[in-house]
Structure formats: C-alpha cells, structure tokens
C-alpha cells in the first residue's frame, strides 16, 4: 500500500532546504525559517494517479453512467420494436393513394410517420460542419507539425489497409458462395429503378478538385461533381464500315452537400499554422476549443432524441419496401453473402487488429461503441453519426481527444470498409448473373476499383449504390445493372454504415496507441515550458509569516496545501510598487 501513498515533491533551486525521511520512506523537503525565493511543485503524475483511482470506483455507479446505459438500452429497444411494428403495419399499407380494401396507410401517411426521424437526422447533420471544423483545428493546434504528420500517415495507412482487406474478404466470399449462379434465374429489371453513368477518371478528378475549393465558405454547403452525358451513335470508318460509337460529354456542376475533403484540408493546414504560431494564436486556439465544447454539449442534447428518431426511421423504411419477396432467392443469397462478409470483417478482423496492436479489451471497446453503432444503423450515415462517435471514443473508450478529433473526421471521409466489401460483392454477383467470366486480372481490378470507389463515396445514405457504377465499368458491365440490387440496398446500407463507423473507431485506438510516444513528448514539453515560464516570470514569490497584516488582501495568492506534515500552509504573495524600486518582496 505504500506504493500508492508515496509522494514525490519536486523543488526548483532551493536556497535553504533540508531533506527528511517520511514514515513511508519518501523524501520530503523541509524549509527553514529563513526567507526563500522558490516555488514548490507537486508533480502532475501524482495527482493523475489518485484522480484516476477515485474515478474508477465512481464511474460504474455514477448517475451519468446510469443515464448513458438507459439511453443505449432504449435506443436498441427502439430498433427492435420499430422492426416489429413496421412488419405488423405492412398489412394496412395501401397500394394506391385511396383508402380502399381496408387499407389504412397511404404514402402520405407514411411520410408523416417518417417526419420525426427526418428531424433527428437533420439535427445530427446540423452539427457536422461546426464539429469537423472545431475538432480538427483544436486537435492539431495542440500538436506540432511533425507529430500531426506522423499521426495522419498512420491513420491513412490503417484506413487504406483495412479497406483493401475488406474488399478481399468480400471477393473471397462471393467467389466461394457464388450467389449469382446458385440462387435461381436473374430477376427482371424494375421500371422505376434508377440508372447511372460514371467513369473512374471523373471520380479521381472530382476528388482532387474538391480538395482545393475556390471558396471555403461555399465548400460548407456545395461540392463539385462531374455530370456525364452518354450519347451512342453509329460511326463510319475509312473503309465505309459502320460501328457503334459512344460519346461522353462531361460537365462540372455544383451539388448540394458539404465538401468534406476541402474543409478537411483547410482545417488541417489552419490547425498546424496555429500550433506553429504558439502564443500569437492563443486566442484562436481557445476559441475553437470552446466551440468544440459547445458543440459536444449540443450533441448530448440531440442524443436524448435518438430512440424516438431511430424508431420512426425504421418503421417508415420497412413500410416503404415494395415486397418481402426481395429477400428470397438469388437476391436473398446475395444479402447473406454481404452480411457474412461484414460480420467477418467487423467482428473478427477489426477486433483482431485492435488486440494485436494495442492489447486492449476488445469486448469492452465494442461495448463502449454500442451507442454509435446503433445510431449508424438507424441513420445509415457515417457523417450524421460522427457526433455520437466522438462521445463514445473519448468518454467511454478513453481515447486522447487530440487523436480522435483529427482521425475520426478523416475516417468518416476516406475510410469505408463496409462500402468496399459491399461493392466488391455486388459487382461480382452482377457478373455472375450475366454469366460474365471473371479472370484473375478482373478480380484484382475489382479489388482496387472497389477500394477507390469507396473512398470517393460520400458519407451519406446509399452513396455506395452510385459509386458501384465505377466497379461495374471496370468489369465491362453496363451501369444499368445497378438496378438489380436496388431493392435491398437500403437495408445493407445500414449494416455497412455501422461497420464503417466501427472501423473509424478502431483506427482511432490504433493511431492513439502508436502515437503515445509523441503525445507523451508533447506533454513533457508543455510541462517544461510551464516550469520555464514560472521561473522566468518578473514577479518574485516569497513565503511570508502568517502574522503579516500589512500586505494588501488583493495580492494574496491561493494557499498551498501539502500532504507532508513538514510543510505548513504558508501564503505566497508579491507586492508591486509603483516607485522606481520596481518590486519589493517580504
């Protein structure tokens, strides 16, 4: 027990001191009655140890912890109850806009049911912009350029590595199960389904364009995208032979939505410059730190509404399904393949990476992320879930905020493990339906194309369905084949969004562990700078007798309380005179 009670007192250039031994064997410094001009400090590590031990005992049964558990349980219950009620109300759904044949729910009624869920998603999206800006800038402002560079490199290596692994897992499963060949005949296209056109080069150029927006204010609500128009005509060659000719007309257009890539780059550079300016940019640093605190308080308020919002979202989405027959046959086997891949990657590969690198308790970490995973499933948007992910990572899994505030926004943009797996499986499944032979080269191309397409996918609902066109083009399949899986994409989108969010959080823990030396060095440097500022200050600190009644009360410093009985509660003060003598110390 002496190990926990041991106190180490650090002194700075004592003038008149002597060392004595405590009963527990620790050294202490005793002051003589002579005048002394030095400061006695208690190391921060001692305070951290005692504070951490007391917090561990209070955390499990605290009122705040019980509220968090109640919120998590009600959110999970809202998903389960929403699925049950949604399935039960499908019998009352009207095929037309009229109440005939005993139906009670038209499309307008279903829109009313969805309304509370839409409000909940809008509240979360409202917080995305201030959250990304304040979190990245406040995080990088506390780091130096070298530390932030290493941290960003580790995050990108992890994100690209796990995304490629996810695509490989999906390809292995779809080639093994072969849902396109074993599930029966190919489904007919639906007239109301949407098709899309796209080229890989356009996606790459759009990513680069959005990295460098011409107006940072406009980047907060608009992005640049290529609108591709395809014209198919018949051409005549030099030998007067006819051939089919495809003409692509690419035009840039501005689309509604946050340009996350442009804001990320701007905020990263802005935060690094603030860290280099140090004292000159202290006001800016404090502003963004205060802004982040305000946004996180708003997130806590918004999460109180999450059970209701997620419940109505689930009910309305089940009611809008065309038919439950979409979940059987070839399409049902395809769904099972995607879900099996997401389970393997999310609950076997990612936890294994977490344990190997950090040696953390995997089950405890997953439990800490429960609220974020349920929210991701309900909203189907990793950007909308970002405020909740912050809370789970920092407050429940104790990740350094300097890491989470930089890594999580980056991961929400470029890390799409679930989307990469889904697109790889979907592309090969469609190829199997159309009896297109797959060579080893095409499989490799599918791996890297699905990885690139997942990075280009916006973190919004069903964005992967649009970027899937790129993978189909790589396999030589027409983009209209996206319609084949359109009916079940809404459900798979929720599962892959949860895996995307979980992958971001695992990356946060991995980068936090690998960056611990840089973070400790920054902490030590900060403490050293504080010590230097104290000792180089113009004011002189002295220990005054307790019976001094001539000292102005406003100049008294806060008394220091010491655990060692050799210290008395002396009062430290400085009196500044206005005359030519400058400062007088008693």
UniProtKB/TrEMBL annotation:
Coiled coil regions, renumbered to chain: none
Keywords, comma-separated and alphabetical: Glycoprotein, Membrane, Symport, Transmembrane, Transmembrane helix, Transport
SUPFAM superfamilies in UniProt: Proton glutamate symport protein (SSF118215)
Species lineage: Eukaryota, Metazoa, Spiralia, Gnathifera, Rotifera
A Pfam family the protein falls into: SDF
InterPro entries: DAACS (IPR050746), Na-dicarboxylate_symporter (IPR001991), Na-dicarboxylate_symporter_CS (IPR018107), Na:dicarbo_symporter_sf (IPR036458)
Leader sequence residues: none
Transmembrane domains' residue ranges: 70-89, 119-143, 155-177, 258-277, 298-319, 331-357
Name of the molecule in the record: Amino acid transporter
């Amino acid at each position: 027990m002496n190990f926990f009670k041991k106190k180490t007192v650090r002194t700075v250039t004592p003038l008149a001191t002597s060392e004595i031994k405590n009963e527990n064997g620790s050294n202490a410094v005793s002051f003589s009655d002579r005048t002394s001009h030095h400061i006695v400090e208690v190391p921060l590590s001692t305070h951290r140890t005692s504070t951490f031990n007391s917090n561990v005992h209070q955390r499990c049964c605290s009122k705040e912890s019980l509220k968090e558990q109640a919120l998590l349980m009600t959110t999970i219950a809202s998903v389960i109850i929403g699925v049950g009620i949604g399935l039960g109300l499908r019998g009352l759904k009207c095929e037309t806009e009229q109440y005939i044949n005993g139906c009670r729910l038209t499309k307008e009624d279903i829109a009313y049911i969805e309304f509370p869920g839409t409000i909940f998603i809008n509240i979360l999206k409202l917080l995305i912009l201030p959250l990304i800006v304040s979190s990245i800038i406040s995080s990088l402002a506390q780091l130096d350029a070298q530390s932030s560079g290493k941290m960003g490199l580790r995050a990108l290596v992890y994100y690209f590595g796990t995304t490629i692994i996810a695509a490989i897992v999906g390809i292995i499963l779809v080639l093994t199960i072969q849902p396109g060949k074993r599930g029966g005949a190919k489904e007919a296209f639906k007239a109301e389904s949407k098709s899309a056109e796209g080229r890989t080069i356009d996606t790459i150029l759009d990513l680069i364009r959005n990295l460098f927006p011409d107006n940072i204010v406009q980047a907060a609500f608009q992005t640049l995208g290529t609108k591709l128009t395809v014209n198919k005509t018949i051409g005549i060659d030099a030998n007067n032979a006819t051939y089919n000719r495809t003409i692509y007309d690419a035009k840039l257009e501005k689309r509604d939505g946050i340009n996350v890539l442009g804001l990320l780059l701007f905020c990263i550079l802005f935060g690094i410059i603030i860290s280099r300016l140090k004292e000159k940019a202290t006001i800016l640093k404090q502003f963004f730190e205060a802004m982040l605190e305000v946004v996180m308080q708003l997130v806590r308020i918004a999460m109180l509404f999450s059970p209701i919002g997620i419940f109505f979202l689930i009910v309305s989405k089940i009611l809008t399904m065309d038919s439950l027959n979409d979940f059987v046959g070839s399409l049902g086997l395809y769904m099972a393949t995607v879900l099996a891949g997401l389970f393997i990657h999310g609950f076997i590969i990612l936890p294994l990476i977490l344990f190997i690198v950090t040696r953390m308790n995997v089950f405890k970490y997953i439990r800490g992320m429960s609220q974020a995973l349920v929210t991701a499933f309900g909203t189907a948007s990793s950007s909308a879930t970002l405020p909740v992910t912050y809370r789970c990572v920092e407050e429940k899994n104790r990740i350094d905020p300097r890491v989470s505030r930089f890594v999580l926004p980056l991961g929400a943009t470029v890390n799409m493990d679930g989307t990469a797996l889904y697109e790889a499986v979907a592309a090969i499944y469609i190829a199997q339906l159309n009896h297109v032979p797959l060579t080893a080269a095409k499989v490799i191309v599918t791996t890297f194309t699905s990885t690139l397409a997942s990075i280009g996918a916006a973190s919004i609902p069903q964005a992967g369905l649009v970027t899937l066109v790129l993978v189909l083009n790589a396999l030589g399949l027409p983009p209209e084949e996206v319609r084949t899986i359109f009916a079940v994409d809404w459900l798979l989108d929720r599962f892959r969004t949860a895996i995307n969010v979980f992958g971001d959080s695992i990356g946060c823990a991995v980068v936090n562990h690998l960056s611990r030396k840089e973070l400790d060095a920054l902490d030590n440097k900060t403490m050293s700078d504080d010590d230097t500022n104290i000792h180089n200050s113009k004011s002189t600190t002295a220990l005054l007798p307790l019976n001094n009644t001539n000292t102005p009360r406003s100049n008294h410093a806060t008394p220091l309380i010491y655990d060692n009985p050799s210290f008395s509660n002396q009062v430290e003060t400085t009196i500044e005179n206005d005359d030519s003598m400058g400062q007088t110390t008693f």
